[in-house]
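S.,

As promised, the zinc ion run. Input:
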Amino acid sequence: MTEEEIFQIAKIKSCNFWPKVTKTDYCWNWTASGQGGYGRFGVAYQESGVWKTRNFQAHRLSYMLENDVLIPKHLVIMHTCDNRKCVNPSHLDLGSHFDNVHDCMKKGRRRTYGKVPKLTAFQALELKILYKMGMTQAELAHKFNIAPVSVSNYILDKVKTKTEFERCKKLNPPLESAVG
Ligand SMILES: [Zn+2]
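Predicted complex:
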């Protein structure tokens, strides 16, 4: 069964989703089970006579239901309210994992900005997709005009993209400027 087909089933089962949510004036909190602080919603489906369960993160599924779109796995849904349990669609934002602010801040706290990256977030995402589609690191190095070692660094998420780099600088100004 494809992800799209499972999503169609999830839409039907969403009548079981919303009763697990307690709405406050601000956040809509997931009250059922979860993992890592995030809510989780299991969708049961039958494949070749066998019952299986596909677990969705509750906030991801909320975003997908609201926008009626299946979100590819390489894209994250971020909380603008910083509350992992929240499934309020107006508190959810789509981004690539390059935009993950928590990750950005975690790295930023170590104050290791490294070299200014050569690729934009979009290019870095494109690079990773092409790599998954089977393009070799040498081919990617040629295509993006970067060193092969840089290609593997982008694949392993060791390099911040230009956008992320700028945002990290904003969120974590260097010590000197914080003092001055
Ligand atoms: Zn919220």
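The pocket of zinc ion is lined by residues 27, 81, 83, 86, 88, 91 (CB under 6 Å). The CA atoms of residues 128 and 155 lie 6 Å apart.

- D.
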